[in-house]
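Format notes (please read before filing issues)

Several people have asked whether sequences and structure tokens are stored in separate files. They are not. Every record keeps both together, in the order shown below: the sequence lines, then the token lines. Line labels are part of the format and must not be stripped during preprocessing.
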Amino acid sequence: MERRHPHIEALREITARLPNFNPFFYNSSQEMELVCTYGKAISIGIYKDKHISVAKTTFFENTLLVSHTHSQREMVSVLEGELEVHILGDKGESVFFIRQYESFEILPDTEHYCCNKEKVTIMVQTMPYSPQFPKPK
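Then the structure lines:
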């Protein structure tokens, strides 16, 4: 007789009820509008577990995101447009321009903000999981 672990059986049952995977959750109720000084930025949760959060964020034309920090390591990859990232530190402010298909790492607890002139779409991941990120559907 085959012995089955109850947790494995429960996972099989839950998995069978999951909807088809939608990679960017376009109509997700988990969409989050980010706090901006001006303009508009929308973030949509794609994936999360205890180790990582992944979100797709769109900055609409002429947006300035407020200065903030994360206690997690953050990786930003630009899918469309060019993002201007400002890092604030003890020695002043550093500015980086991240172009399409380039990536940029922001270390934990680093104050930063970003802005753009034209529409920009990015993929952002934090490690470990960030409760500040929108949760996937």
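For reference, the curators noted about this record: The helical segments are 6-17. The longest strand covers residues 41-48.
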